[in-house]
Specification:
The complex is a heterotrimer. Helices cover 24% and strands 31% of the residues of chain A. Chain A contains nine helices and 20 strands. In chain C, 69% of the residues lie in helices and 2% in strands. In chain C, a hairpin with a 2-residue loop joins strand 1 and strand 2. Classes of the chains: A alpha+beta, B mainly alpha, C mainly alpha.
């Protein structure tokens, strides 16, 4: 168990290409942190810098209080699970798991014992004599996990370990990794591009982006907080299984209230609680963002006034079981998606009215990384778990 | 070999016709060797009868022994002295063996440096290697001859072995091979606590084994058959390798056709054995060599 | 990557150094050294340790000598020879492709079970036939000594007397051998299919080397060689046919050939023009068509002309020019120079034998206009050798030669005088035989005939490489073609040939491109071993590589000049590769 601290870490390739910038984060003892973001956002690069596989161009990385910038990977007391598992094809499963221990000159009995225990824990004890080629994808994955476990490292590093598995196996292995972490309580850093994996696994997740020409951290928080209160439009769009709806428009003052208006005539009343924050944006362009599940056929008790309605024309429905996804077109031509409770007689190709849950509506500044005007300073109001001191961008 | 693609499921008739055609073509490939065996079993005077009789009237398996002893050849004593086939065989194996060993080792190490270590100037040096591969071998013969003379390696084993022990092509081939080994493997090994030498010997070399075998086969066959270089760099009969020895035999005892055929047949056997056992690697290697373009 | 830059450089050097040193000393260094040498007059005879002289810088003199100066006649002649031998390259590549296509077509039985069944059956049949042939044709116990009927066979080396029993047994063994060989091919082919044939086809290129060239040297022997044993009867048949058909038929045949070629050319050109008009293809593709048409027409006219000539002139000349007095004097002095210990009187006998019209020589009495049968020839030989026991070859050997090598050298000297002097002159016995068969078509003397030596090398070269690396590359290329392409083409209604033209050939274009480039590079600097072993540079077979060897290492030791030759070759290779690249990349892009 160890604490990992990154301070102003940056990676520059060939003196020009900046892959990661201003990465600061403290990962606590036993914490499970997930780096998530689209490809090219520098999440793997950061992980590899922690592992010692990439040189750190700027900043420092500490493990257990000791700066490891110039420490060889083997001396950092970490273990890593690679995307392609990186099992030595010419060695048996046992040898694969024991290789690192052998190099560290552990006594033979201890190696056997550790490998045996890990194999049993992962349910691969009857595969120990096989070569990786004779294993299924899931089994290889377990061997790669086992190889990390036997080393009993201070930190586990996972580099997209599930991306080579099929969808079903991915879900079960995900659960197993989480269980494993609960059992071993080893500090874990996990890299993935899959937001669902990030949400389910992490104690905290670090959302990264590549949008501004360099990989950088956008938000660090618990999964639910990141989901509920994205700090900017990028995070809002990136997390969540269905895309967030965004409507460009203006904030206007009328009848002593603030309204979100669109040229086509749409007017949405802004809740009074938001007014203070929206005040500087009167008569300015903004983006209204809300998830499809923030729409409903019936009024929300808190927001039942007429200003919270959204008249649309339904185009297409996609039944999902408990819910249905409704693709709609608004009168001004914008397309939005709604997720509502399923019912058989939902009218397609009809004009209906949806109600918006204004608690889950965000107002972003314009642009792909426009900040969330309402929740940008949420850290102050959101109940963060005390040991997860927020850090970073 | 991967399963051949099936354009269409050919009819039984087409497949049979194809098979017959292949057998007929196969005959033209086999008959010269059969002919070689027959001649090698004939007496010298009966060689000319072979085309008429189709088979030697009397078989002379002892021809194979006479290649080594010279017995029965006109001026046989002199032959045994001047054409020492046992020595030629030894020389060929000795030289080809050493060249193979050294070339595989040096190439593998260099390939590791080119594929696994990132160092300043790497790509430029590698480009230099690639560039010389484009230069035809004829250019190198004369200067190398002078260099060997200057180093005092003329007419001895070092002159035969050392210049051939380093190969840009071998380095290139193994580099290509090593590039196919995922870099996460040596990263994993590095985290597991392995240094460069250990990664090289315990991870990369075992995984590059097919490549090493391919290079070893190519090098061995190439040097076993090598003609030009031994021809210009050796002088004394006891430094001759097999190809040079065969040529010397032919030019001094040209009428001993059966012995020449027996000797050349024996010279062909090691490559055949090598091929039959390592066919898989050789075929792969040739197809890999195309990456060169 | 692990470690800091400086440290990584040290690590890399530790791994690289052995190779790098060797590379610099024996590859990179020599390249520069060779370039330097090519601008000097370095000759080992002059500039060596003993003389202490240093070579001096001569600028472009060596290049000038090679390209336009005193060496240029040889150089360009040898360049021509090299190009001639490279004719085999396109033929070989086409052959490789054909073999690869055949191997790719899944020959023989398709299931494992039928493989086992058919091959077992074939093996059994082979075995039974062999045993049967042995039982039926092998003669019984050898006859008592002295009671056997004898058969006399003539060979290049004299007459051989054999018991009839021996002849019978040899023929019986031959029959068994034929059955066994065929049976082996069929059985293994059925059992192992493509892999077996691939192995068989690959063997020649695997074994290409001195041993293989020595084998082909015996195959090419004019008499007693395997090839002529096959070619001879074919030629006789051809001759019989030609003589037996009216000459107008050959005119018509030749004309038809040319007309057919013209029709095909017209079609090719019109399609090309149409495509240009509709902008389906560019100018390069059209020029390619023009090239094909030109070569097609040239070939057709050539073959057509030969066809028309068939009745009047046989393909292989049956006459030869008698040596004139100057030739004879030159031969005599050359022989004397080569063999100073020779008895001049014997020499005169040889020269006498060489002179004049063969019909006037005493042994030529039996030279008829009609080819003699083998039995008649034997009769004639017996008669002649009865009267003249010391016929030409014996005289030659006894007078001059101490070894067989000497004897053959004599033959070469005489022969080099005029390529049309029949080599029979040098081998006494054969004068008679050759004289007698003169009226008929003779199979070529291959390696001992300046007209046939190069074709012989080409034929051997094709045989060697056709199943080699190129075939394997094509096989790999074929297996990489996605089957869906064929399926799509089949659905589109493409026939077998169209599938080849529209799917296989374009998909193989990168492979072909690579093969052509490598073959051209190899072809321009190749051929040394073949020429050295098989003809020793005689009969106009010297190629550039052999020429460079001669200049550098055989007699002359002119290292500067040899280096210049190497660099000229290098430049030629470069130019040819550049052309290939241009044409090839256009082809692969199309």
């Amino acid at each position: 168990m160890a604490q990992v601290r990154l301070t102003d870490v940056a990676k520059v390739y060939d003196g020009k290409v900046r892959a990661v910038e201003d990465f600061s984060l403290t990962i606590d003892h036993g914490e499970f942190v997930v780096f998530v973001g689209p490809s090219g956002c520098g999440k793997s690069t950061t992980l590899r810098m922690i592992a010692g596989l990439e040189e750190i161009t700027e900043g420092t990385i500490e493990i257990d209080g000791k700066v490891v910038n110039d420490v060889h990977p083997k001396n950092r007391d970490i273990a890593m699970v690679f995307q392609n598992y990186a099992l030595y094809p010419h060695m048996s499963v046992f040898k694969n798991m024991a290789f690192g221990l052998t190099l560290r000159k552990l006594p033979r009995e201890e190696i056997q014992q550790r490998v045996g225990e890990a194999a049993q824990m992962l349910g691969i004890d009857d595969l120990l004599h096989r070569k990786p080629k004779a294993l299924s994808g899931g089994q290889r994955q377990r061997v790669a996990l086992g190889r990390a476990i036997v080393r009993e490292p201070k930190v586990f590093l996972f580099d997209e370990p599930l991306s080579n598995l099929d969808a079903k196996l991915r879900v079960t292995t995900r659960t197993e990794i989480k269980k494993l972490h609960q059992r071993l309580k080893t500090t874990t850093i996990y890299v993935t591009h899959d937001q669902e994996e990030a949400m389910t696994l992490g104690d905290r997740i670090v959302v990264m982006s590549a949008g501004r020409g360099v990989g950088r951290v956008e938000q660090v928080d618990t999964p639910l907080n990141v989901y509920r209160y994205p700090v900017n439009r990028f995070v809002g769009a990136f997390l969540g299984r269905t895309p967030m709806n965004f409507l460009p428009g203006r904030i206007e003052r009328a009848d002593s209230r603030l309204w979100f208006t669109r040229p086509g005539g749409l007017r949405l009343l802004m809740p009074e609680a938001y007014e203070e924050k929206l005040h500087p944006y009167v008569n300015q362009e903004v983006n209204l963002g809300f998830r499809p599940s923030a729409l409903a056929e019936h009024p929300f008790p808190k927001y039942s006034e007429a200003g919270y309605t959204l008249p649309v024309h339904t185009v297409l429905i996609e039944p999902l079981g408990k819910n249905i996804d409704v693709s709609c077109r608004m009168q001004d031509g914008a397309d939005i998606l709604a997720r509502i409770d399923a019912r058989d007689d939902f009218p397609v190709n009809a004009d209906i009215t949806f109600y918006l849950d204004m608690d889950h509506v965000h107002v972003f500044e314009p642009g792909g990384f426009g900040i969330n005007i309402i929740h940008a300073d949420r850290e102050a109001i959101a109940p963060a778990q005390p040991q997860h001191a927020a850090a970073g961008a | 070999m991967p399963a051949p693609a099936k354009p269409t499921s050919a009819s039984v008739f087409a497949r049979t016709a194809l098979f017959i055609a292949l057998v007929l073509i196969g005959i033209t490939f086999v008959v010269p060797f059969v002919w070689q065996v027959l001649i090698s079993l004939s007496t010298r005077t009966e060689v000319d009868l072979l085309t008429r009789l189709g088979f030697p009237p009397s078989l002379q398996p002892e021809n194979y022994a006479r290649v080594f002893t010279g017995g029965g050849v006109e001026d046989g004593g002199q032959l045994a002295q001047r054409v020492d086939f046992a020595r030629y065989f030894f020389n060929s194996f000795f030289v080809a063996g050493w060249v193979t060993l050294l070339q595989v080792i040096t190439s593998a190490m260099a390939a590791y440096a080119f594929s696994r270590v990132r160092w300043p100037g790497r790509d430029k040096v590698f480009l230099l290697y690639l560039g010389t591969m484009m230069i035809p071998g004829v250019v190198l013969m004369v200067p190398n001859f002078v260099i060997i003379l200057g180093l005092g390696m003329f007419d001895n084993y070092t002159g035969l072995v050392i210049p051939a022990a380093f190969s840009a092509f071998g380095t290139f081939l193994l580099r290509q091979f090593m590039l196919t080994i995922p870099s996460s493997l040596d990263e994993a090994a590095s985290i597991d606590g392995a240094g460069h030498w250990r990664i090289f010997t315990e991870v990369i070399l075992p995984l590059a084994r097919p490549g090493l075998i391919v290079l070893a086969i190519f090098t061995f066959l190439g040097n076993y058959n090598s003609f030009f270089w031994p021809l210009i760099i050796t002088q004394s009969p006891n430094m001759r390798t097999l190809p040079i020895g065969l040529m010397a035999f032919d030019s001094s005892y040209g009428r001993e056709t059966p012995l020449i055929m027996a000797a050349s047949l024996m010279a062909m056997i090691p490559p055949i054995i090598l091929f039959l056992f390592l066919q898989k690697y050789l075929v792969k290697g040739i197809q890999l060599g195309a990456v060169k373009g | 990557m692990i470690g800091k830059g400086r440290k990584r450089l040290l690590i890399a050097m530790a791994f690289l150094l052995p190779n790098l040193l060797g590379f610099l000393l024996f590859t990179a260094g020599p390249v520069l050294f060779s370039l330097y040498m090519s601008f000097t007059d370095w000759a080992l005879a002059k500039h060596n340790r003993a003389s202490g002289l240093m070579p001096s810088f001569v600028g472009f003199e060596n290049y000038e000598r090679v390209l336009v100066g005193d060496e240029s006649r040889l150089f360009w002649n040898y360049f021509g020879n090299t190009l001639y031998l490279m004719i085999g390259i396109p033929i070989g590549i086409a052959g490789s492709l054909l073999l690869a296509l055949m191997l790719n077509g899944n020959p023989g039985p398709s299931t494992r079970r039928s493989r086992i069944r058919t091959s077992t059956l074939a093996g059994t049949i082979t075995l039974v036939t062999c045993i049967g042939a042995w039982a039926l044709t092998t003669p019984g116990a050898p006859p008592e000594p002295g009671t056997a009927a004898n058969v006399t066979l003539s060979t290049e080396q004299g007459l051989t007397m054999l018991r009839e029993w021996d002849v019978q047994r040899a023929r019986s063994n031959f029959a068994i051998l034929c059955v066994a060989t065929l049976g082996f091919l069929v059985t293994c082919g059925l059992a192992f299919g493509t892999v077996f044939f691939r192995t068989i086809f690959y063997l020649p290129s695997l074994l290409a080397g001195v041993a293989m060239f020595l084998l082909w040297k015996t195959i090419y022997r004019p008499e007693g060689g395997l090839l002529n044993a096959g070619v001879g009867p074919v030629l006789s048949a051809v001759q019989a046919t030609v003589v037996g058909t009216p000459s107008w038929l050959w005119y018509v045949l030749g004309l038809l050939l040319v007309l057919a070629a013209a029709a095909v050319s017209l079609r090719l050109i019109t399609v090309g023009i149409t495509r240009m008009i509709y902008k389906e293809a560019g100018l390069t593709s059209f020029l390619g068509r023009v090239c094909i048409v030109i070569s097609l027409l040239a070939a057709a006219v050539g073959i057509g002309w030969a066809t028309v000539q068939m009745p009047e002139r046989s393909l292989f000349p049956t006459d030869w020019k008698a040596l004139d007095a100057a030739d004879l004097a030159e031969i005599r002095s050359e022989l004397l120079a080569e063999f100073p210990h020779a008895d001049p009187a014997s020499l005169d006998i040889i020269i006498d034998q060489l002179s004049g019209d063969p019909a006037e020589r005493d042994d030529a009495v039996i030279t008829g206009t009609r080819p003699l049968g083998e039995a008649e020839l034997l009769e004639v030989r017996r008669a002649i050798f009865g009267a003249h026991p010391r016929a030409t070859a014996q005289i030659l050997t006894a007078a001059l030669a101490r070894t067989d090598a000497d004897a053959s050298r004599i033959g070469e000297i005489v022969f080099a005088r005029s390529e049309r002097v029949h080599r029979g002159y040098t081998w006494g016995h054969n004068i008679i035989v050759d004289g007698a068969t003169l009226a008929g078509l003779k199979p070529p003397a291959w390696l001992q005939d300046a007209r046939w030596a190069k074709p012989a090398l080409v034929i051997m070269g094709i045989w060697l490489v056709v199943g080699g690396a190129n075939m394997l590359l094509y096989l790999a290329g074929l297996s990489n073609i996605p089957p869906e392409l064929y399926e799509a083409a089949a659905i589109d209604g493409a026939t077998g040939w169209q599938r080849f033209i529209h799917v296989t050939w374009p998909q193989l274009a990168p492979t072909t491109f690579f093969i052509v480039i490598m073959a051209t590079i190899g072809g321009l600097q190749g051929g040394f071993e073949q020429v050295m072993i098989m003809t020793a540079g005689k009969y106009d077979t010297v190629v550039l590589a052999y020429y460079q060897y001669q200049v550098a290492f055989e007699d002359r030791f002119e290292l500067g000049l040899a280096s210049a030759i190497a660099w000229v070759m290098c430049a030629m290779i470069f130019v040819m590769t550049a052309i290939n690249f241009r044409v090839g990349s256009q082809m692969t892009n199309e």
